[in-house]
Amino acid sequence: MTTDLATDLTSTATTAPPTRTATKDGGVSAETDARVVRRRLGPGRRIRFAFWVGPTVLLAVWVIGSKTGLISEQVLSAPWTVVESAKTQWTDQDLLGDILASLKRAVIGLALGIAAGTVLALLSGLSRVGESLIDGPIQIKRSIPTLALIPLFIAWFGIGEQMKIITIALITLIPIYIHTHNGLRSIEGKYAELAETIGLRRGEFIRQVVLPGALPGFLLGMRFAVTSSLLGLVVVEQYNATSGIGHMMTLAQNYGQTDIIVVGLVIYGAFGFLADGAVRLTERKVLAWRRTLEG
């Protein structure tokens, strides 16, 4: 019987919350409840490909503004000029090499930050001793902008790749830690009470309830971490880089080539947009049971 109750507890923590079913005495069904929530948020059906609507509108405004002269070439290069510049950088320069160099820095730094942030969050979130040792220093670091530490990192690690990757990792560590730790500490009390009632061991409770319950927080931290890694990438590539999008933009700035600078900005934006989309897609697949506001 204990095994059956543990299975029920796991199912409750990792699947959809219990839904309300329509009854003869006036009960409300889950479908009706979801429709009420959507109606309160606003009328209309779910928009297909909604993730792409905003960027498409932004691109249309850029095109129309450049075509009509509302956006001057001196202020912002036209889209077709940017496309031609990108082609030139691809054929005559090493745009592909710059993209790969930037991606390598961002991916390695992001991976290190995710790993470190997750481990620290687990140590702090699952242990009072760990929290007393870890959470305070993390909060202190949180109040100190990582970019302000770059001069110190240069003194410690030099001005090469190591400094750049460590900076990106430290920037991404914070949102992963904060949101994962919050997820670990926000498990509903009813699950803990049920675990005590059926005699579920602490290790099983952590593995079957706490960790799945913290997954939404971890994925939210991932979205912030991806954006933060690109912010760090933009800055560190201004420091003695010999390759990368930032290096390309620095050279373009020296020669007053605003169109190439815009090429770099578009690439950075595409990085962030696609990475965030990948995390959101993963979140929707993994946490499909939590979907209450979507049709």
Question: Could you explain the architecture of this structure?
Answer:
- The structure is a single chain.
- This protein has 295 residues and is mostly helical.
- It has a single domain, classed as MetI-like (MetI-like fold, Orthogonal Bundle).
- The chain is built from 12 helices and no strands.
- The longest helix has 35 residues.
- The protein is globular, with a radius of gyration of 24 Å.
- The two termini are 37 Å apart.
- The N terminus is likely disordered.
Would you spell out the secondary-structure blueprint of this structure?
Blueprint: H1 2-14, H2 30-41, H3 50-68, H4 79-92, H5 95-125, H6 128-143, H7 150-157, H8 161-184, H9 189-198, H10 202-236, H11 245-254, H12 258-286
Helix pairs in contact: 1-9, 1-10, 4-12, 5-6, 5-8, 5-10, 5-11, 7-8, 8-10, 10-12, 11-12
